[in-house]
Structure formats: structure tokens, C-alpha cells
Amino acid sequence: MTRSRSRKLLSRILWLDPDAGNAPESAPIAADSAVDPVPDIPTYRDRSLQPTPPREFRESSLPASTRVRSRLLPNEPPVVRTPDLYTEHFGLKVRPFALTPDPEFLYWPPSHQRAYTMLEYGVRAHSPITLITGEVGAGKTTLLLHLVRSLGSELRVGLVSNPHGSRAELLRWVLHALEQPAEIEESYVDLFSRFQNFLLSEYAAGRSVVLIFDEAQNLSAEALEELRMFININSGKDEVLQLVLIGQPELRDLVSRPEMRQFAQRVAASYHLGAMDLKTLRGYIPHRLRVAGCERRIFTAPAITMIYEQTKGVPRLVNQLCDLAMVYAFTRGRQLVTPAILQQVLDDGVFFPASAPRQTSETT
After folding, report:
1. Statement: residue 115 has pLDDT above 70
2. Which domains are delineated in the chain?
3. Per-residue b or e along 153-172, where b marks 16 or more CB atoms closer than 10 Å to that residue's CB
4. Whole-model pTM?
């Protein structure tokens, strides 16, 4: 399928050109005349780009799609998965604004540098509890994944995502994260005994254990108190267990309650990650494009300002709106994303603006 046919097909799907294939292409959208230069902000570390798809996928009998057979339903007909439509159009190697956390695209404005410094400090300094909070989509999980990559063999890491449940269920989450058995018929005493013996065996082997709870705002006050009791396994000057809690602002509010003062006193490092300001966003968007393989400007300065107004600087929302804008620009054959294209995205109702998040960053 040629790029021209792809644009017309996607235009019909998006209702941008209901008479695609018959009616002439709409008049060009004028690019914004006043464009501020974007500073060349370096990345924190040079990383290689993601590899291109394997040859057998790129040379499929369907040149504009990939056939993928379900593992769960081997007798079902192949599923046709459409590739990224606009990457070739813009000269990109990968999509620059995917919504899934990817440390390869990590951008390091001052707020993220401070958040990561506190996160790494908490782990390296053997802090009993490290607390990192931030708005939805602020980049907390991406920082967490970058941290996990950097940790050495002297640490045993257990990652618990979206924890919830009773005391015994919480302990089962922990044991599973540490690749330890936790049968449903076992009592809490049995589970805790296994957990304690595991911590002591790791300590004897010269390793400390780091338990990371992502989406920790889902933990109740009772669950947090249970985690504090886990810390009491530590004895003497050596910490055999550390807790890292990553969550939304509600987690910080919960820990700040008067009845949680015993837990709060064990928090040795914490940081609240706010949304990006406009200056940071002007560096963030071209940074992700560079990592994806494009050095030229795609978003005009007025378009970036409009993106900030609609997303309030939340990275995940920025990615979503930028991705949609590039799809719309592709369907029109444009090489620049302008406010007019963004307005079409908004008018079509495919993007849902967010309410204003907290902008402040706090460190303790």
C-alpha cells in the first residue's frame, strides 16, 4: 500500500476527508510564520535506538501489515496488525510519542533529575522508606524502570505493581515479586516466616532486598502499617529490607495523616514530581523526535504552546496529543504540525484534555 493510499484510507477512518479517493485534496494549511528556535538540550545518556522489525515481518506477503497468530487461540485465523503509518512519512525509525513507559526516551529536565537523584539516593543509602509521588503520567514509572536497570547484583529487587488486598494477600504479592512460593492455603504466620528467612538468607549472601511498590496510592493505611512492620525485621545498623513507594499525590496525603506519623518518620527520602512547564515542554518534544531519528523541526512553536495549554504539561497527555497530531498531519501530507492541525484533533473529540495538576515539586 502506497503512502498516498494509506493517507486516504486513514483520512476516511478519521472523517477528515469523507470523499477520499474522489474529491481533490483540501487546500494546504499555512505553516506558522513565527517560530522560535528550540534549544538543543542533550539527553542524560546516549542510548541506541530500538532495532528495526525482523526481516520476515518487513517482507510479509502483506506489505502494509503484519500477520500475527494468537498464542492462546492457535486455530484462529491470523490477526492483521497495522504498522505505524506516519513513521516513514516523517523520516522516523520508531514512534516518538508512544504511551508506554520507555527509558530510552527519558528526558532529564531539572525536576526529573531531582526526582531520580532522591530515588537513587534512597536506594543507595539504604533508606528504610523512599517515597516518590507525582500526577498521573508524570513519568514516575519511567524513572523507576531506569533505576531498576542501573541496580547491581548486590541488591535483590522485587517489583509489586498495583498492590491491594488484605495483610496476607499483600504478603503473597511480596513473596511472588521475590520469586518465593506463597500457597493460598498457607497461614499468615507461615508466609511471614518464609519472608523473614528469605531476607536473612539474602543478607547472609551479601545482598539487601529492595521492595518497590508501583501505584502505591492503592494501598490502605492498614497496608502501609503492615509494610512498616516489615521494616522492623532490620536489626542493628544494617538494613536487610528497603521499601520504595511510587504513587499518585493521594499517597503523599495518606502518609501525611497524623495517625501515620510512625510510618512517615521512616521515610528518609521523598520527592513530588510535578508536570512540565512550557520551557521544559519546548525541549521535551524535540528530544523525543531526535531519539526517534528525526533532527528537523516537526512541531511549530505556536503548536507547542497550544499542546501545553491542552495538556498542562503532563508527559503522558503530551505524548497522546502529539501522536494524534502527527497522524492527522500525515493524512494531510503535511511535514509540520501547526495549531490548525491540533485544532482539528480537538474538534474531532479524539483527545480529552486534562484538568490542571499540581505544578509544585517537593523534596525531603
Report:
1. yes
2. 3-53+277-347 (no CATH), 110-273 (3.40.50.300)
3. eebbbbbbeebeeeebebbb
4. 0.67
